Amino acid sequence: MKKKTTKLMTTTGIIAAAILSVQNAEAHKEPRKGDGMEKCYGVVKAGRNDCASKANKHSCAGFSKVDNDPNEWIKMPQGLCEKLVSGSTEPKDE
What we know:
Distance between the termini: 63 Å
Radius of gyration: 18 Å
Structural class: alpha+beta
Number of domains: 1
Largest sheet: 2 strands, antiparallel
Number of helices: 1
Strand content: 5-15%
Strand order of the largest sheet: 1-2
Helix content: 25-40%
């Protein structure tokens, strides 16, 4: 019985890891035109950005250093960004 439980738990863990991997890959894709999503700059928490910094500080998701950096973005439904404090659909020029 113990062997069956261990095998079931291992299989469940593998399936869960596969699902999370696919979700993570989808979250870091560039927003496409017409998909109802847009880049929103200036509202991201440190370490929660979706992709590269527009100020060329890094080239990967999750590397933002400070909250609300005006050159870090996260994708969100169109129209929501402009409603957020410090939210902008364009990065800040540096």
